[in-house]
Design goal:
The protein has 57 residues and is an alpha+beta fold. Helix content is 18%, strand content 18%. The chain has a single domain, classed as Alpha-Beta Plaits, CATH 3.30.70.120.
Length: 57
């Protein structure tokens, strides 16, 4: 048994599932993650209050 971890864009999920099925992978666990890179998030205003969005989907 081997563990493979990958972070992919949501629109690529079906393509990845199909490719893994072709090589015999019979199951997987999928979860949504959030993070940040060079952009470091941004600020938004909601109901007059400004807040920082640090993590992006």
């Amino acid at each position: 048994m081997k563990k493979v971890e990958a972070i992919i864009k949501p629109f690529k999920l079906e393509e990845v599932k199909e490719a893994l099925a072709e090589v015999g992978v019979q199951g997987m666990t999928v979860t949504e993650v959030k993070g940040f890179g060079r952009q470091k998030g941004h600020t938004e205003i909601y109901r007059g209050s400004e807040y920082t969005v640090d993590f992006l989907p």
